[in-house]
Each structure stands twice: as C-alpha cells, then as structure tokens.
Amino acid sequence: MYKFLFFIFALFAFTIVPAQQKMKNYNNIIKSHNIYELDAFLRDAHPDDPRRSVLKPRLMDLLADYIKKAHPDDQRVADMQGKLAMLKRRPSTKISFDEMNEIIRQKQIRYYQEQLAKAQRELANPTPRTIVKKTTVPTPERETTPKRSSIFTKKSSSSTSSATEIKSVTNKSSSVAVNYENPEQAEFEMLMNPSAEEHKNKTVKVLNSLFDNDPTSKDTTVLIENLSDCDMIMRIEGTGYTKYRLAVPAKGQNTIVILKGQYLFSSLVCGAQYASQKTVSKAIMVSLGNPPK
C-alpha cells in the first residue's frame, strides 16, 4: 500500500516540476539591476507584492540613467523613454488588450491622416501619374499574443477556419519569393495604384470608420498585415454580390472598410492558399506570414 502511494506521489511530482520550471523564477529579483528583468517582474508580479515598492523606483532610476548616458543614435532610447513615462503613471509597463487595440487604432489614424493630406496635395497640384509598385504602411507595435493556427493548404486544395478577432499565421522561413511568379501581380499593381481621387475617397472612408465608436454602425475596418515575402491580394466574400479586394504588399499592411457580417477570407500567399471564415462584428486584424516549406 505504501509503495503504491509513493508511486502516485512520485508520478504527481514529476508532472508538476516541469510546469513549475516553465514559470519565471523571481527568487533573486531583489538583487537584480537588469532593466528587462525588473520590467518583466513588475508586469508579472501580484499587485500587492511588497517587492514592488523597492523595485519600481529602482527600475525608474535605471531607465533614467540609461537615457542620460545613451549614445544619440541608440535605437533603444525611445523604448526606454516610453517605459519610464508609463511607470510614472502606473504600476508597470503592462498594457491591456483594449489599450493595445487603441494604440493600433491611433497609429492607423495618424497614417491615414498623412495619406489624406498627400492625396489633397496631389489633387491640388496634379502631375503625370506614375506607377508605384509597392507602398508600405508602418507596422504597429503589439505586445498581445494572437492565436496561431496553420491554415495554409496546397494550391489545389481548400481549407477554412473561423476567427473572431485576430488570426495570425507566421513562419520564419525567408527568401520564399526568390523564384515565385505571382499570377495575381498585374491585378495587385492595378489595385495598388488608384487615382488621386480614389485614394482620397478611400482614405476619408477609413478615417471616418476609425473615428466612429458607434456600436450600431454597419461598417467596420479590417487591417491585413502581410509578413510574407510576396505581394498578395486578400479577397473578402460575403453573401450575394458583397465582395472586396485588398492589395497588401510584402512586409506591409493595408486597411479596408467593409460591412459587418459573415465572410470568407482567401488569399494566395507565395503560392499557398489561405482561406478562413470569419464573423466580422467589429474591427479585426489578420496577420499572414510565409507558408511552411
């Protein structure tokens, strides 16, 4: 009987230990003077952890000291300044999902305000139209961890998967587009080069939707982020004749305003077929990367 109980206890212990090892060990954090370790602790620790009263001021001093001594070209200064500003207002640099969505929305608003001003200048001072093969949109920083699922299939097959807010498919493979001839390239170039008037109208529409906080609105925005090495067209098909096309350059992103509803999202990404059914009831973001080799 005792041997049996000992066996059960040992089995339980071996099951628990690996899970505990995956957790961050902050036993010696009180001795740390590492900015990133202290920042991680403040984000993870319980709000009532007494070590916060010592480690938060230490982290703020370290950040201020780093900024003061940093080289003028140090790319990390902006990040350190952002952390310091947040720590002056709150317990840690941790931000909620809703806050991150708002950050993304504000960056989109600034980008499209710049695009609107550019379109208005072009309309006021028309010049011979030139074809620009690619334009990219600044990628918003995100600290949330989106759900990930592999929903790529070979070109000859089809696959669907549902998503409500964020669907992300990423892969670290590179140079996928070296020998890839995109059969949709001509259509992509056409969609990427609207007239100045068309560009202005689309920009105004996107901005109006981004500023609209009315939950009863019939429209919403869809942000497509293309992390792959290939240009792509996202096709969004609803019921009847409701169809949208959005060209998204490699390593770039683009936004479109659509009616809320049920849609089939599909795209050809570096030769692989992406397909996913989505219920779009609010602004969503879809992020696609290189397909598996």
UniProtKB/TrEMBL annotation:
Q: According to the UniProt record, where is the region Disordered?
A: 136-172
UniProt protein name: DUF6759 domain-containing protein
- The biased composition feature labelled Low complexity covers 147-168
Output the lineage of the source organism: Bacteria, Pseudomonadati, Bacteroidota, Flavobacteriia, Flavobacteriales
Q: What species does this protein belong to? A: Chryseobacterium lacus
A Pfam cross-reference name: DUF6759
Residues covered by the DUF6759 domain: 197-290
